[in-house]
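subagent[fold] <- orchestrator: predict structure for attached chain, return tokens only, no commentary.
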Amino acid sequence: MLLTTAFLWATVAQAHYRFPKLIIDGQTEAAEWTSIRQTKNYQTNSGVTSVTSADMRCFQNKAGTGIATVVAGSVLGFAAAASVSHFGPVQFYMAKVPGSADINTWEASGNVWFKAGSISAVQGNDPLTSDEKTWPAYKKTSVEFTVPKNVPSGKYLIRVESIALHQAQSVGGAQIYLSCAQVEVTGGGNGTPGPLVAFPGAYSPNDPGLIWSYYPIATSYKAPGPDVWTG
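subagent[fold] -> orchestrator:
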């Protein structure tokens, strides 16, 4: 029994993941936590389960140290260690760092985040499934989005989140795997991103997008949070 229990716990741990590297122009950063703030799950790969926790912001373990340069309108990716091993949506948020703030220590609290991308459920499958047919990001080793071309140039935190729904049959069961990259966006435009939301605050534990029904089987799904700002 002890061996069986140990095996099950090991299996669960292996199923968790984190996002420690950026992918810029198709090139993955050589080392973890280069331009991504190290997260509290850097050793355990565990997720955030309380959407009212301050960990929903960046889940960071320490301040940032590096900044990546990204061109507005280009594709930016996050490498997963080892893969997105739970089904659910993957979303991307951006927050512009004030000119007077240090990007390495800026907390990004309050209504400063806008949704810049989302990889959600493929609708039209009736019912929806809990595999790759419905969830395009499921089992991928990296996820990506296009930085809005009209976003103003400047320094940003870019937050990736993967909402794992495999144990989300009841409130509080969703697991959120997230991290924040530090980037400088160049070649931007004069758009006004929005709506702006806060983490924590953007999600409620009772949001339908944080709950998954195996029975009755779900026939539709909408990810939590605001609409994507495309610029």
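orchestrator: received. Logging for downstream: DSSP finds two helices and nine strands in the chain. The longest helix spans residues 2-15.
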